[in-house]
Design goal:
By secondary structure, the protein is an alpha/beta fold. It is about 20% helix and about 35% strand. The radius of gyration is 25 Å and the shape is globular. About 10% of the residues have low confidence.
């Protein structure tokens, strides 16, 4: 009789344990599904926001992967601050998590913001990492040095340089930097993606704010010379 009671007690305990586990798994699955619904895409980026204030760029979209020359990582997406590259969609348990690598084959990557968290990132060998902030925590994390530009190689990050090409949007204020670059006299010019301004067409890069002289990109570059370029805009014609 005692044996049967003990067996029944054991079975009841196991059933309660299984119920608790299933309940936990159900809750974790629900949390994962809810977080999965927070994922959204822009033209170049697959993103997630947990609080509608901050964004993690999880990965590049198919179109983003095609940006093999120059990729700009924005400081904001949909009005939310970009704070991290690469990461996971959390779900409470390891089995309910999906990991995303931020992987780029672009030759040059411009970090528009100051302090991104690089969680799970992979850059191609010889990728040039560019930032306008010398004291960026991101650059410190990448290179452990305070430089604006560094190259990725098999040993980590090296070849630090000060930027010598500055591109300005030329419509916001005097400090509306679009992106920057470093070019020495021995390499071909690389072109950043054309900037976008609502209601306007981008008409090229010019050597002064008044946009009188178009810049010729076959100009001989020198790492000792600073070049400052300004975008020209024409108002879109109504259709």
């Amino acid at each position: 009789m005692r044996t049967k009671i003990k067996q029944a007690t054991t079975i009841s305990a196991l059933l309660l344990l299984c119920t608790a586990i299933l309940s936990c798994l159900g809750g974790c699955t629900s949390e994962y599904t809810e977080n999965l619904n927070r994922v959204f895409e822009t033209e170049y980026f697959c993103c997630i926001s947990y609080d509608n204030q901050h964004v993690t760029i999880l990965a590049l979209t198919e179109q983003g992967q095609k940006q093999t020359d120059y990729l700009i990582i924005p400081k904001e997406i949909n009005g939310m601050e970009v704070t991290a590259l690469g990461g996971e969609i959390e779900g409470g348990l390891a089995i309910n998590r999906k990991q995303y690598w931020f992987s780029s084959s672009a030759k040059k990557v411009f970090l528009e913001g100051k302090d991104y968290i690089l969680r799970i990132c992979r850059f191609a060998p010889e990728t040039v990492i560019i930032s306008q902030y010398y004291d960026s925590n991101c650059i410190k994390l990448l290179a452990e040095e305070k430089y604006s530009i560094c190259s990725v190689n098999n040993n980590g990050f090296s070849d630090y340089h000060q930027a010598n090409i500055y591109y300005y949007n030329n419509y916001k204020n005097d400090d509306d930097l679009y992106c920057l670059d470093w070019i020495n006299g021995n390499e071909a010019w690389s072109f950043p993606p054309a900037p976008v301004r609502e209601g306007y067409n981008f008409c090229g890069w010019f050597t002064e704010k008044e946009c009188e002289n178009v810049f010729l990109f076959d100009t001989q570059a020198s790492e000792l010379k600073t070049i400052i370029l300004y975008a020209k805009w024409d108002l879109e014609m109504e259709k």
